[in-house]
Specification:
The chain has about 425 residues and is α/β, with parallel strands linked by helices. About 50% of the residues lie in helices and about 10% in strands. Helix 7 runs antiparallel to helix 10 (about 225-235), helix 9 (about 210-220) packs across helix 13 (about 280-295) and helix 10 packs antiparallel against helix 11. The chain is elongated, with a radius of gyration of 27 Å.
Amino acid sequence: MPEWSPNPPILAGQASGPADLAAATALLRSRLAMERWPVPAAAFPAGTALVGGAVRDGLLGRLGERPDLDLVVPVEAIALGERLSREHGGRCVVLDRERSIARLVIRGWSVDLARQAGADLATDLLRRDFRLNALALPLPAGSELLDPSGGLADLAAGLIRAVSEQNLLDDPLRLLRGERLAAELGFRLDATSEAWIRRHHRRIDQVAPERVRVELEKLAACAGGGEGLARVQATGLLDAWCRPAPVGEGAATAVKAAGGAALRQITPAAAEARGLSEDEALAALPLARLATLLDAASWGRLHASRALQRRCGQLRSWRAQLQGAGGTGDPAKPFATEREQVHFHREVDHDLPALLLMLPLPFARAWLPRWREPGDPLFHPRPPLDGKELQQRLGLAPSRRLGELLAHLTIERAFGRLKSSEEALVEARRWLKGPAP
């Protein structure tokens, strides 16, 4: 994973950004390769324009193989989507019936269609969130980019600048999206927009929790997500969902500062220093950031899945134990008992790389090589015999005692005292003859 930099590149392929709209238009059309689109440009009604992320990313040279296409159309978008799906294949999904927004999913592409808001395209663009997103490319060949707010200049300067204060308030999720775009692109918020976000941060509690959570997950997945989440935390955008124990104002500020410092340390460079592969880092970085950002209860208020709540709760708990009074701080002797150690590895089995990003470097050096061995009996603990086989071989019935026996055999196997199934049966018979724990 490439390291995030707060110094964004200039518009790719330009010495200092496009000299004019004509140059920007030519650059964008060459990168969009409209002839590859799953629906021909001529199939859309006159007045249709490409807007949003595909325009921005095309100018920056960031388009993927099948970029998401957002189109503003001068007609009812849902009816158009249904017609295009009949004529060209794919499936039309209604996203917002009231505002006439639909999505055409076709051959691995996603084409969003939205009815134009306002009397003309410029009016529609001036209602958008940030200037670099308020650019439009009319589809007909020969049409130039439309830039009513100065988005091209912001792209060249690496700035995230709101179109207006009111536009941010029209959908308060935009307060959070500004920080996400900055982290995603390696841009910076301009001072005025940042002041508006801080001034109105409490408005975000008007937004559906699910939408906030999705934006946070996108931010956590950015290369610069740690820095971005630290800024989000500092601005108070999460205060509505994060409810720590009552403390004085100074203590609350210190807690935020400590959390921000921890988030800023969860970077691609930290993953590389710990020896994580690119695939391991791609999975571990977002989870480590989310777990550092909020506790399980806060994720519950944001309607996160039970699995995410559980994983974040476990990672935070083990981090506190391994770094605090509950642990030795030594990766060679981190646990008080064998049972606790096996319990730990069972809980964090799939998420250990994320936890290593939250712990000092020596833990990764000691644990990562063993975790990568799928047959390591301690780092991937399991009983040498499953419950069904124990019932059949020993005539046992399902019970709490059977569960305790499985836990005992797992510990014995984890620390190398059982080498085979037969040894496990001998140990099981010996254990069953003893008093119940």
